[in-house]
Amino acid sequence: MGNRFYLTLLFLSGVVLLLFMSFSIYREVAPEWKKYQSEYKTMMVRKSTDDATKKKAEAMKIDLRQIYLGKLNRVDRCTSCHAGVENPNMEGVKPPYKVHSGDYLKNHELNKFGCTVCHYGQGRALTRKEAHGLGHDTHWDYPIVPLQYIQSSCASCHSLESLKTKGGENVAKGEVLFRERGCKGCHKLEGVGGVLGKALDGVGSQPIAYFPMRFVQGERTVYAWMKEHFDDPRNIVPASEMKAEVTDVEADLLTTYVLSLRAEEMPKKYRKFEGTNAPVVGDANGETLYKMYCIACHTTGKDSVYDEVFKRTIPAIMNPSFLKAADDKFLKKVLDEGRAGTQMTAWKQSAAGLTDKEVNKIIEYLAKDRPAQRPEPFGIDKYKGNVTHGEDLFAIRCVSCHGNKGQGGVGLNLRNPIIQKEADPEFIAITIRDGREGTHMAAFGKSGVGLENQDIADLVAYVRTLSKKK
Ligand code: HEC
Ligand code: HEC
Ligand code: HEC
Ligand code: HEC
Ligand code: HEC
Ligand code: HEC
Fold first, then answer.
1. Tell me, what's the pLDDT at 280?
2. What is the CA(104)–ligand 1 centre distance, in A?
3. pLDDT averaged per 10 residues in sequence order, the chain, 470 residues
4. What are residue 307's phi and psi, to 5 degrees?
5. Residue 334, number of CB atoms within 10 A of its CB
6. Residue 68 CB: number of other CB atoms within 10 A?
7. Which residue among 293, 312, 424, 447 is least packed, with the fewest CB closer than 10 Å?
8. Cα-Cα end-to-end distance for the chain
9. What is the largest CA-CA distance in the chain?
10. Are 411 and 441 in contact (CB under 8 A)?
11. 190: left (phi over 0), alpha (psi -120 to 50) or beta
12. Contact yes or no for 272/157 (Cβ under 8 A)
């Protein structure tokens, strides 16, 4: 009885082992790609309408197929599975059997371009998962790009200008959004732009390890990271200071554009670059420049808004009562030097990279609605400011908004070199006296709160000492 039991067990385990071995051998002999190619062959035979094509289909060899791209140091074996990409009979079937849509393979000869120049993925790999590079266990930095972003790759070889009419309109539209939504207000590209975020040159080919994937909802790829980050930066990077007010469609377009910013350059042989990538640089007018560099934070320039993320007010820089007091010389200083200790970048050439000419064009644009009437002079030179009295007044009247050290909050930062050294004391006095209409900055002079001119002069004297306060 016992013997019988063990014999059966031995027999059964032998069967299991045999099955397992034959499966392994089968896998070895018929790897994934062979299965797809045989399926493709069967479809070809089934779809042939005359004897000649049927014969040809039946004679098709199941072979590893590969395209060697010497100059790129790549081997693309995608066609081992995607065997029907050039076969017009394969219309209406599913990938990997399907004929390639559009004229892409007619415009880009298969044997010269392969597939990964447009789709990315791991050209050498022979399983679907490894070739597509999806899943963190494949350890491949550039998985196949979702088709809604695929136009990002066209820009490696074609200019954005030419792509507008060549089938790359999404990446071209993304670039326009990039300019018009003021991304360069915080990001440098090709050496020009703000510094709150990092320079974006090459960001599209940055490896996945660089991106914090923790909060990404979709597939853990750079593509999903980008899209979800545009939808809401703070969902992906908690406490991020990034601003992106975009619709879902716009987030797709921006993702496409940003992914096109790749570090490596395609060899000349592979490129067809006509036209330009930067249609506006050089002769951009003030309004265009304002959009590129200022609009993300200052929006229309008409509203003074407390920013919950920055924890400070972004002032209304096109407010007539501001412009009335602030002359071009003052604006030039603020733009050149920025506002140290706040999110406001220094825009001069040696910092954000704007030329004097560009800064002046922006100033001209800001000041286009400056009231003709100058403010009534204050005559600050006639007063001798009393710093101690100024300090008392500041504690009562100003600290709640400007902070006990003048660091800002609801009110602006008054500790920076602009207010401390560069601004005309007359400008500060007039601002305190007249306030700024439509903002939280009230008129503290006779027309408003009712302070005497001497009090205001004392405040000015005190404000000028704020930078020394520890
Ligand atoms: C082992 C077989 C295999 C290999 C090798 C392979 N693929 Fe695929 N591919 C498939 C299959 C199966 C599908 C359909 C199922 C799917 O979408 O994953 C597919 C689908 C696709 C799609 C369509 C995805 C979509 O969103 O509709 C693209 C694009 C693609 N492959 C590109 C590539 C590229 C580029 C390569 C080479 C780097 C490649 N494939 C290599 C099997 C393969
Ligand atoms: C010049 C760029 C380019 C090259 C090269 C290229 N593709 Fe595509 N491919 C595209 C674009 C763009 C789409 C999206 C088509 C659309 O939505 O109109 C696409 C779509 C696909 C799809 C989705 C199904 C379809 O046909 O719409 C598959 C699968 C695919 N390509 C596989 C490949 C394979 C395999 C190769 C290499 C033999 C390859 N592609 C080479 C640009 C390219
Ligand atoms: C690896 C570089 C490369 C990529 C990526 C690439 N192209 Fe091309 N493309 C070329 C070259 C080079 C030619 C010229 C044809 C040739 O030399 O074989 C060309 C030709 C074309 C043409 C036809 C000729 C013309 O100039 O009108 C179109 C249209 C086109 N590409 C669109 C696209 C689109 C859309 C994409 C992205 C889906 C894309 N290309 C991706 C290099 C590339
Ligand atoms: C108010 C400033 C600001 C604006 C405007 C802004 N960004 Fe950002 N951006 C940041 C900051 C700060 C970070 C770093 C924190 C983060 O990843 O969210 C960042 C991160 C990024 C990253 C990730 C970079 C990396 O390597 O991690 C990309 C891509 C990006 N921004 C693109 C854009 C685009 C495109 C726009 C225009 C729609 C834009 N940003 C507008 C401040 C800004
Ligand atoms: C990243 C956000 C951001 C961007 C981009 C930005 N600013 Fe500012 N700006 C601020 C903040 C915040 C302040 C207030 C600083 C403070 O508290 O002192 C400010 C202050 C100013 C002031 C001083 C106003 C006053 O009341 O004295 C001017 C003028 C100004 N910005 C103009 C510009 C212009 C022009 C651009 C584009 C070239 C620009 N800013 C881009 C955030 C920004
Ligand atoms: C209720 C809040 C609030 C109070 C109180 C307040 N301010 Fe302001 N202050 C602001 C805001 C907001 C701005 C910027 C408004 C704008 O242009 O959008 C500002 C702007 C200023 C500026 C212009 C700074 C620049 O860079 O252009 C000065 C100077 C100033 N305040 C001084 C004072 C002084 C002195 C007091 C006290 C007598 C005071 N403020 C009280 C909110 C306040």
1. 66
2. 16
3. 79 82 66 94 92 92 94 94 95 95 96 96 95 87 96 96 95 96 97 97 94 93 96 96 96 98 92 83 87 97 96 97 95 96 96 96 96 95 97 97 96 95 96 97 96 98 92
4. -95, 120
5. 20
6. 12
7. 447
8. 94
9. 120
10. yes
11. left
12. yes
Q: Decide: 413 in ligand 5 pocket, CB within 6 A.
A: yes
Residues with CB under 6 A from ligand 6: 304, 313, 315-316, 319, 322, 397-398, 400-402, 410-412, 414, 419, 428, 431-432, 436, 439-441, 444, 459, 463
Among 85, 77, 88, 123, which residue's Cα sits nearest to residue 104? 85
96 preceded by a cis bond (ω within 30 of 0): yes
Is residue 159 within 8 Å of 276, Cβ to Cβ?
yes
243 lines ligand 5 (CB under 6 A): no
| In contact, 255 and 151? CB cutoff 8 Å | no
Q: Look at the chain and count its residues.
A: 470
pLDDT at residue number 134? 87
Residue 468 CA to ligand 6 center (angstroms) comes to 19
287 near 365, Cβ under 8 Å?
A: yes
Q: Please answer whether residues 243 and 297 qualify as being in contact, where contact means their C-beta atoms are separated by less than 8 angstroms.
A: yes
CA-to-CA dists, residue 301 to 249, 342, 413, angstroms: 26, 18, 18
Residue 362 C-beta-side C-alpha neighbours within 13 Å? 24
CA distance 298 to 316: 7
Side-chain-side CA neighbours of residue 274 (13 Å): 6
User: Does 296 sit in the ligand 5 pocket, CB within 6 Å?
Assistant: yes
| pLDDT value of position 277 | 85
Q: Which of 320, 345, 319, 323 is nearest to 334 (CA)?
A: 345
Q: Which is nearest to 140 in space by CA: 148, 149, 132?
A: 132
Tokens of 97: 């059997």
CB atoms within 10 A of CB 134: 17
Q: Which two tokens stand for residue 249?
A: 């469609």
For residue 92, give both structure tokens.
């209406």
